[in-house]
Hints:
The protein has 459 residues and is α/β, with parallel strands linked by helices.
Amino acid sequence: MDIKEKEKLIDEVLSRGVGEFIDPDGSFRKKLIESSEKIVVKWGVDPTRPDIHLGHAVILRKLRQLQNLGCKVVFLIGDVTTQIGDPTGKSKIRPEIEQIEIQKNMKTYLDQVDKILLKDPNVFTWTMNSDWLISINDIIAPDNQSISINIGDKSVNLPPLPSNNILAKAAHWQATRMQKSNINSYTLINMLSVLRKITHSRLIERDMFQDRIKKGEPIFMHEMMYPVIQGIDSNAIANIFGSCDLEVGGTDQHFNMLVGRDVMIMNDKKPQAVISFKILEGLDGKEKMSKSLDNYIGITDESDDMYGKVMSIPDSSIVNYFELCTYVPIEEIEEIKKEIENGKVNPRDLKMKLAFQITAEYHSEQKAKEAEENFINTFQKKEIPENMPEIVAQKGDSLADIIVLNKILPSKSEWRRLVEANAVHDLEKNENINDFALEISESLIVRIGKKTFLKIIVK
């Protein structure tokens, strides 16, 4: 690749799907072009839920492009900040999450990111912010732990120690740290030195805090600390890896990432550049894609589900999904936009192309073709799919109980809502189910909404 081609590629990486790019002196772009030093890119995630969806993948796909340019991605798992809860875009306080759930979600995240990112140690690593935000005194050591200590040139085995013993805590802390060098644990004194240079008025100016003030809702101090701690994370990564050249996140993280620049300057480090990406709306076409809003497409969704969900997006989201979720050239996307505006194309045809592109990326072209055929047979030719969940039930069982207990729907209230909206259909009788308390008397095939099919076999 010659220099002009590389510059063109870099310009697209730094602009496509980007809300804001902060690189005041152009040093990050210059470093990308020259590639004379290792470039460190930070992406932080609080593992509140286990699944990665297409909204997360907008950033992951950009990180993969940066890896292809030689950057090392540091995937920061915020196991401490998860317990704080970032108030960004939320009017309510995030509930506390147990450490065991956080650990489980961390593993799921790491298992999923390699669907997009390279796991080569030269361009990828991961760490946890508990490495520098948790001290030995915060550790709860296993009870009756047996440890060895060196005295002179001899190793001495100590008797089992209680969990509150400082030696037991120290041994457990050392064994559970990912990063064991260039680590500066942040004590209260360290935290105060940072807070001394960040004004209360700067933190309180955030939109979500102003909204709460107007509504008379509480703002807790630990929430105000979140952007400060996120900034400390950037400084810690620079200590460990030699630099933190860039932090990436959604536009809703822009304020927090700018605080990271401030914290790095306070510590005499070159401040990170910041890229905040456009937010991908969910299936409703309105709210940010979110699992809690149940408007998401998971990157591990089955190919049929993924294809069908993409087909369900509103026409107004087509261009945004092409830009943020595919590698279709931007020039082609501009043509698609013009065709939609001029009414020269059927939006359904564009959505089928979009659904194929997305499904092929996370599965394969063959799986995408099969999903497309199943979709055509099911929805355009009104055929019943061959593959659907089968549940064995007893005569007289409540259909609502069957649906909820088998996790087809999350709650009976959701079941009631769909029944009242005439969105539940008995395919064998070709009629809507209008009784939300229906007790089944025979086997049936049910369609719930537009894309969920279920066969219930009565024994």
